[in-house]
Design a protein that fits this description.
By secondary structure, the chain is an alpha/beta fold. The protein has helices spanning 9-18, 40-46, 69-78, 92-102, 122-132, 143-151, 167-180; strands at 23-25, 28-30, 81-85, 111-115, 156-161, 184-190, 199-202. The strands form two sheets. The chain has a five-stranded parallel beta sheet with strand order 4-5-6-3-7, with helices on both faces. Strands 1-2 form a two-stranded antiparallel ribbon.
Length: 203
């Protein structure tokens, strides 16, 4: 069981060995009885060995759409914008967050959840994204241009949990963001498709 972070197993093992939580012995490994209850994910986050992120700390017990995980993770690597659509209560956000957690090792500049349910303008959307990824916007250059220019050099994954009332307006900026950055990937969750260029749909 990898608790949603299989790509970071190597980091975890290196940490455990370096800190002498586990020790190599002839024929195997020596480890303390309480190792199974050790919160490795939190320890790695505190020590800066995980990419910046705002994912939930406990992602264990994922069930339901587990068979779709390999597909969505592959889609993230091959495409800039993947939208998971469907009615409420079908586990869209949970699937997207799990895929993001299991892909964290591919995005050294961060993995962030951006909930836009209360967003009602492009200005609010840009501000929300900037604050979430901890990028301060200032100066006379338009905020959306500053954000996209900053992200052009970043390898980052965003999970955008959509607000249906503002979906089409938000979609235009989300598409602009995806197109304007070469290494920023976006998973959006929504009841409906955003209907923008290069959007990959997962139902």
């Amino acid at each position: 069981e990898t608790q949603g972070l299989p790509g970071l197993i190597q980091h975890g093992l290196i940490f455990l060995v370096a800190e002498k939580y586990i020790k190599p012995i002839p024929g195997g490994w020596q480890y303390p009885p309480d190792l199974l209850s050790f919160d490795l994910h939190t320890e790695l986050r505190v020590r800066g060995q995980l990419p910046p992120n705002n994912l939930p700390e406990n992602l264990s017990g994922f069930i339901g759409r587990k068979q779709e995980l390999p597909y969505i993770k592959q889609m993230i690597q091959e495409n800039d914008l993947v939208t998971v659509i469907g009615p409420g209560g079908q586990g869209k956000s949970r699937l997207a967050v799990q895929a993001a957690a299991e892909s964290m090792h591919l995005f050294p500049d961060g993995v962030f959840i951006i909930p836009i349910i209360d967003v009602t303008s492009i200005t609010m959307l840009v501000t929300l994204i900037s604050q979430t990824i901890n990028y301060p916007i200032s100066g006379a250059i338009p905020a959306d241009e500053q954000l996209i220019n900053y992200l052009k050099k970043k390898k980052m994954l965003m999970v955008i949990e959509s607000g249906e009332k503002y979906l089409q307006e938000a979609a235009q900026f989300i598409a602009k963001l995806a197109a304007g950055t070469s290494s920023v990937k976006i998973i959006a969750t929504s009841h409906n498709i955003m209907a923008v260029p290069d959007e990959i749909i997962l139902k």
